[in-house]
Structures are given as C-alpha cells and as structure tokens.
Design a protein that fits this description.
Blueprint (H helix, E strand, L loop, with lengths): L4 H17 L3 H11 L5 H26 L4 H24 L6 H30 L15 H18 L5 H10 L5 H26 L4 H22 L7 H17 L3 H29 L2 H6 L3 H7 L1
Helix pairs in contact: 1-2, 1-9, 2-3, 2-10, 3-8, 3-9, 4-6, 4-8, 5-7, 5-10, 6-7, 6-8, 10-11
C-alpha cells in the first residue's frame, strides 16, 4: 500500500479538529479529497466514511476514560442513526449511481457543508446566550428525551450515509437545541462515541455498495489517529473557542467551491470570508487579553477553578 504524504498531513489536521470540536470528519476531509486531491466524490465519501469509523474510537476513548460521555444519549441517537446511515449508503449507489452522480453528490455536499457552517454559527450564538463563565453540569440519564433524540440520530444518519457529513457538525448543533444545558465536554464526548455505530453502519453500506480506496484510507488514518487523540485530550478538559471561526471559514469556502459559483464571485467571497475570519480572531484575542482570560479561551480552564486551587 502506497501512502500519500500530503494526505497524511491533511488527515492530521482534520483529525485534530475532530478531536477538539467533535466536528469536521466528513465536513472537512471529504471536500479536501475532492477539491485538493481531485477524487471522484462518491469514492471520496466512501473512503472518508471508512476512515472515520477507524479514527473516531480513538477520540471517543479519551472521553470514555474521562467520564464525559452520556450513555443514554448515545443509545437513543444510535437507534435512529444506524439504520438510516445504512440506507443513505444504499441510496448513494442506487439512486445517485448514474453518469451525473458526481455532479449531484458535489452539489449535495456543497449544500450540506453550507448548512453545517450555519449550524456551527447557531451553536456559537446559543452558547453565547447561555453565557461562557458557568460550566453546565452533566445532565444525567433521566433528562434524556428518547423520541426527539432518536429523530436527531435518524436525520444525521441519513445525511452521513449520503455525504459523509454530519456525524459531528449537524448532530452536535441539533443536540444543543434539544439540550441547551448539556456541557460542552459531555456533548463532544457523547457525539464522538455515538458517531462510532453511526459511521459503522454507513461504512458497511459503502463497503458493500461504494468504492473505497485502501491507499486513501491508510494515508488519512496515519495522520488522523494520533492527531484526534491530541485534540480529544484538549476538548475533554476545555473549550474550542479559537478553532470554531476557522472551521466555519473552511466549511464556507469548501461549500462555495463545490457549488461552483462564477469564478470572479467565488474569489471575492473567499477573500471576504478570509478577512472576516482573521479580523474576528484578532478581535477575540484582543478581547480575551483585556479580560484576562486568554488561557481560558485557549484551553477552556475556568477562572473560578484556578482561584479555588490557589
């Protein structure tokens, strides 16, 4: 098996982001395979889904050891997501299997990425409304709402099966809407663990109906596995304040590229997104320095806990 060094680097970057935020496995890796490595969209989806199946347990395992997983939440999400993920993998072959399939999948993926970017923005706004200082407590098994949770799993599972996107970016946002007091640690930990059976079902479907490439899967995993464990170690201890704006920018640019707007418009939009992201990060950094919580913003250390330790 020949490994691609560039794919190893791409896998490491995406793996770190997935471990840190619970998002980006399909939303970033699939567009990278399509846009940077010029892969057929259906092959990219199949390869990415199978790579995610092997990668995510390493990140989820960190959260299991730290006790930041709500197992009832994971269970009800899986009841909805597993059968729908397999169905999505079947549909991408049977319904979108004609000569126009590549264009259809690229367009579908572009719109899903656009929705994912909007979903992450919504999550940030909802988190801001909750307030940053108080850390939410673990919600406990009794607080889980089975039917709405199962519906979230079903929607996310179908989208993952079709596009490889959504096991993190879309499901996390829907969970935040349903469980606004769920802590960030527990949300990311539960999402990484529930993604294992979800992506597993999609991976089985793609192995049967799709066209995964072993060389691509191997290259991505060599970089992604150590990186996702590093990212998960950060997220199990704190927040992901600075990575979210950059992730949103990458999702927006990827979605625009896949949707293939006019070239001049695309360049202007990319420039606008890049400038807005850079300005936003600089302002956030300056604000944190003024408030004396730069350390909290980077690694999520609660200032009150520091004072208690003193």
């Amino acid at each position: 098996m020949d490994l691609n060094p560039a794919m190893i680097v791409a896998g490491a970057i995406v793996g770190f982001i997935v471990g840190l935020t619970g998002m980006g496995g399909g939303a970033l890796m699939t567009p990278v395979l399509v846009l940077v490595f010029n892969m057929d969209p259906a092959t990219a989806v199949s390869s990415d889904v199978i790579a995610s199946l092997i990668m995510k347990p390493f990140g989820g395992g960190v959260h299991v050891r730290r006790g930041t997983v709500n197992w009832r939440l994971v269970g009800w999400l899986s009841v909805g997501s597993v059968p729908m993920a397999f169905l999505g993998a079947y549909l991408i072959d049977s319904v979108f299997g004609g000569p126009e399939s590549a264009k259809i999948i690229k367009t579908m993926l572009g719109w899903v990425l656009l929705v994912a970017a909007g979903a992450i923005i919504a999550k940030m706004l909802l988190s801001a409304r909750r307030g940053i200082a108080p850390n939410a407590e673990p919600m406990g098994g009794a607080a889980v709402r089975p039917l709405p949770t199962m519906l979230i799993g079903a929607i996310g599972g179908l989208i993952v099966g079709l596009t490889s996107v959504g096991s993190g970016s879309l499901i996390i946002v829907m969970l935040l809407l349903l469980y606004p007091l769920l802590s960030a640690k527990e949300m990311i930990g539960s999402d990484l663990v529930q993604a294992i059976p979800l992506v597993g079902a999609a991976a089985i479907g793609h192995a049967i109906f799709g066209n995964p490439q072993v060389e691509v899967i191997g290259s991505v995993l060599v970089g992604a596995i150590p990186a996702i464990m590093i990212g998960a170690n950060f997220s199990s201890k704190g927040s992901d304040r600075y990575i979210k704006p950059a992730l949103i920018a990458v999702l927006l640019i990827s979605s625009l590229k896949l949707l293939e707007p006019n070239k001049g418009d695309f360049n202007l939009l990319v420039l606008a997104i890049a400038v807005a992201t850079a300005v936003g990060l600089v302002l956030m950094y300056a604000s944190d320095r003024r408030k004396g919580r730069l350390t909290e913003g980077l690694v999520g250390v609660d200032a009150s806990s520091l004072s208690e330790k003193r």
